[in-house]
Amino acid sequence: MSLAKITSVSGRAVNVPGNDIDTDRIIPARFMKCVTFDGLGEFLFHDVRKDPKTGQITNHPLNDARFSGATILLSGANFGCGSSREHAPQAIQKYGFKAVIAEGFAEIFFGNSTTLGMPCVNANREDIAKIAAALAKDPATEVTIDLAKLEVRFAGQAVKITLRESARDALVNGRWDAIGELIEGIPSVKSTAAKLPYLAA
User: Fold this and answer.
1) Per-residue pLDDT tens listing for the chain (201 residues)
2) Burial degree of 136 (CB within 10 A; 0-12, 13-18, 19+)
């Protein structure tokens, strides 16, 4: 098993504005009664995408057909705060997103996202506003998150981003999935174990 080296992510993007968007808003707790994470994407932002009283579709950005198929999520400060549930980044990824750009991220959300191979990069408020403006003008705008150059390119513009070096290194070198690394290392473990006299049968 070889983990993908994630050096960049490109695609259309959608802006979901707001600060302190917590994990309960990302995936309400009642949808977490699942054996696997596979169906969680269906319920991403469920309680703000539908009116709780009428069940009618709201004007949430993810309900806007112009942004259907977007693979990059844009947001504000402290994204993914609240409960540490790993279902939140799972729901985002299962919906179809491959990366998130925000002013900042809650610590556990950031770590859970990195272990899914989903980069969470930081940009300042002014630069996020520039990206959002480009998306509003043309929803088909191609956005590229370059983890090597630490920049986001869009509509002929480029802005700087930051990403914790340990996470960047894990992503670009294909070491972002700890379980995957363990599985990949099984042959080496067996080889070493065979040479240890106290493990011999």
Assistant:
1) 468 999 999 999 999 999 999 999 999 988 887 767 888 899 999 999 998 888 899 999 999 999 999 999 999 999 999 988 899 999 999 999 999 999 999 999 999 999 999 999 999 999 999 999 999 999 999 999 999 999 999 999 999 999 999 999 999 999 998 777 777 778 888 888 888 888 765
2) exposed
Instruction: List Cβ neighbours of 34 (8 Å cut-off, separation of 6 or more).
Output: 40
Sheet containing 99-102, strands listed edge to edge, beginning at the edge strand earlier in sequence: 120-122, 99-102, 72-74, 8-15, 142-146, 151-154, 157-160
In which region does residue 94 sit, left (phi positive, over 0), alpha (psi from -120 to 50) or beta (all else)? alpha
* Total residues belonging to the chain: 201
Please compute, for residue 188, the number of CA atoms within 13 A of its CA located in the half-sphere on the CB side: 5
Place of tokens 């969680």: 40
How much is the pTM? Answer: 0.88
Nearest to 161 by CA among 121, 107, 128, 103: 121
Contacts of 104 (CB under 8 A, 6+ apart): 77, 78, 79, 122
Distance CA 14, CA 167 (A): 23
* Structure tokens belonging to residue 140: 């088909």
Q: Choose among 8, 12, 48, 9: nearest CA to 136.
A: 12
